[in-house]
User: Fold this.
Amino acid sequence: MRAAVVSAPGVVAVEDVPDPSPADDEAVIAVSLCGICGTDLHVLDGDYPAVSYPVIPGHEFSGTVVGIGSNVTHLRPGAQVAVDPMIFCGSCVQCRRGATNLCLRGGGLGTTADGALAELVVVKAAQCEVVPPDVPDGWAPMIEPLSCVVHAMDRIGPVLGERTLVIGSGAAGLLMVGTLALAGARVAVLERNPERRALAPAFGAVATAGDLDELDDGSGGWDLVVDASGSAGAIALGLANLRRGARLCIFGVASPQARVEISPFDVFSRELTIIGTTSVRNSFRRAADLMALGELPLDLLVGDPLPLERTADAMERTRRSQGIKTRIALGATEGALGSRVA
Assistant:
């Protein structure tokens, strides 16, 4: 099969690699679409912890089940699925308390294991979510980033009526804006890119700006700030503009080397809450059902996908914030696979 392989930091090329075979509890997926996100750039740049090269990136994807292991009973070949990309052991103290995204021996597809920028990918069958019939094929890969938003909402808690600022309106940021608005928050968006900023009202933003001063209404700060940019400077800005007793949620993926200066006395005296949120946790089904409601204008996020051979271009488009969500279309189909999977 063909796959985009990051052989070393900074080096990505399409190569022929062996077809995967499923273990007893696994499934093989013929990938239809795979989105590119910031995590893939971290893998390419060599600054994502625990990655061993070579690796096939990609974790936002959908496709068709084309092979199942002997113990799999809930899936059948031909099912259209999206896949929770988390890898967890199920037995460490974090997994036993339900925090599978914090598994002490965990990882993920596209980071610590080969991912979905390939014609075929092998996954845990239990983590396949059949795509609801009301979800268009082009939307299905975004179940994964939406599930990250749903998990973040679990961490944030109730937002009804809260004055909320989202910093950054890329694809994940806009999904966050839309979900917060559906939950009853009054959401403003801070985004320098005018193309991305222009989409925020369609997702429920009541105000947008490229500079924070343009959003200052004299109310004394924000009830909730969500950083969806991964920028240390943006996180510091959000922290400085919280009202007393407010919350900051770090949702965007920053570089592991990024640092933000925090005054412990400020956090203490203003009773601030800083929330971290990573990946997904028991949120994939809810994200699929939320998407099926059709309340989020997801067609605004996606353009025509690129072929696998242009993976390097897709990575660069994402790095330069060109468009909103760049995706790769893969051509593997069940009919073309023949007997390549069990």
In short: DSSP finds ten helices and 17 strands in the chain. Residues 146-276 form a domain with the Rossmann fold fold (CATH 3.40.50.720).
